[in-house]
Amino acid sequence: MKTPKAFFKPLAIGAPAPMMEPPVRLERMIHFVPPHVDKMRAKVPDIAKKVDVVLGNLEDAIPADKKIEARQGFIEMARDVDFGETGLWTRINCLNSPWVLDDLLEIVAGVGDKLDVVMLPKVEGPWDIHYLDQLLAQLEARNGVTKPIMIHAILETAEGVKNVEAIATASPRMHGMSLGPADLAASRGMKTTRVGGGHPDYVVLADAGADADAPRPAYQQDLWHYTVAKMVDACEAAGIKAFYGPFGDFSDAAACEAQFRNAFLMGCHGAWSLHPNQIDIAKKVFSPDVGEVAFAKKILDAMPDGTGAVMIDGKMQDDATWKQAKVIVDLARLIAV
Ligand code: GLV
Ligand code: MG
Fold it and tell me: Which intervals of the chain form a coiled coil (predicted)?
């Protein structure tokens, strides 16, 4: 896992120059909490012990007449709960909404020192990140927040996908990016009504056999393959992290697991959990399989300096598979810590 380059120009004269080196953290699930609901907020101390990241959601799914309560609920929750090693994020409202300015002013003033990451929805291009970067710099300086707050973009418009590489490198504050399949589907004019996952009609037919009248198997395709691949390349090239976003059908654990697994295999570091039963799915999927780790360790052990070619269990290994094995073993070690 790469870490972004160190950077940062302190805004205020005499202010300490913070390092933009986020700790290499496990972020297998970003667990969404609606902070205006008292019952949900009451569960946060327990949830925080089970997840890698808790996110207070202020944007979509929070009704317009509850936006202020959600913001206040988030500040209260951030102040009162001991998150320990668990990451604390918020998803603010989008930049052209009437709420976003107060989201940032009040949250950075209230709990800026505890906040790790701001998730910014509906990012269209690097200009959105530049704006947020400068605003965060002003608010950190004004409120004496010395640990830089990182930015996580949601990739959920056609324009954003077009500009994904420029978004990934728009600021040293960039932590990573999540695919937002629901908004992206709408932005692209896709003919679906789902939050992520596949579609029974998005299939390819197998070739017809000798019996032309026999039913032909139809194989469902991953609707998100192209975007996830594009996002992972943009993120890895920029030294930041890619994530799959939400899976809306809470009743279909198998489909959620399959979507998360595709993302994991493609290079994503985690996904959103919107329901408690998605926490364990994400934990299982985004932690490497023990058999895979054991095999990866064999490769590392067989090639101590990472060069050459060896056969293991009948399979050829070389410098490139050594690097793949290292990704898996590094992740397993992070989980074991
Ligand atoms: C998430 O915000 C999405 O639109 O899928
Ligand atoms: Mg969205």
Answer: none
Q: Which two tokens stand for residue 127?
A: 């200009």
The alpha-helical segments, DSSP class H, found in the chain are 38-42, 44-47, 67-80, 100-111, 126-143, 158-162, 164-168, 181-188, 225-238, 253-266, 277-285, 290-302, 319-336
d(CA 196, CA 182): 6
Atom of ligand 1 lying closest to residue 59 CA: 2
Q: Are 232 and 244 a contacting pair, CB within 8 Å?
A: no
Phi, psi dihedrals of residue 43, rounded to the nearest 5°: -85, -10
For residue 250 the two structure tokens come to 């809470």
Residue nearest to atom 3 of ligand 1 (CA): 180
Say yes or no: CB of residue 59 within 6 Å of ligand 1.
Answer: no
Ligand 1 atom at minimal distance to the Cα of residue 179: 5
Question: Does the predicted TM-score (pTM) go above 0.90?
Answer: yes
Atom of ligand 1 nearest to the CA of 60: 2
Q: Are 286 and 242 in contact (CB under 8 A)?
A: no
Distance 197 CA to ligand 2 centre (A): 14
Decide the pairing of beta strands 309-312 and 315-318. Answer: antiparallel
Query: What is the ipTM metric for this complex?
Result: 0.99
Q: Residue 6: is its pLDDT beyond 70? A: no
Residue 183 near ligand 1, beta carbon < 6 Å: yes
Residue 181 Cα to ligand 2 middle (Å): 7
Whether the CB-CB separation of 249 and 255 falls below 8 Å is answered with yes
Strand 271-273 versus strand 203-205 pairing type: unpaired
Give the Cα-Cα-Cα angle 120, 41, 32 (nearest 5 degrees): 35
Angle at 275 between CA 274 and CA 277, to 5 degrees: 135
Residue from 156, 190, 247, 249 to probe ligand 1 pocket by mutation (most atoms less than 8 Å from CB): 156
Q: How far apart are CA 130 and CA 13, in angstroms?
A: 21
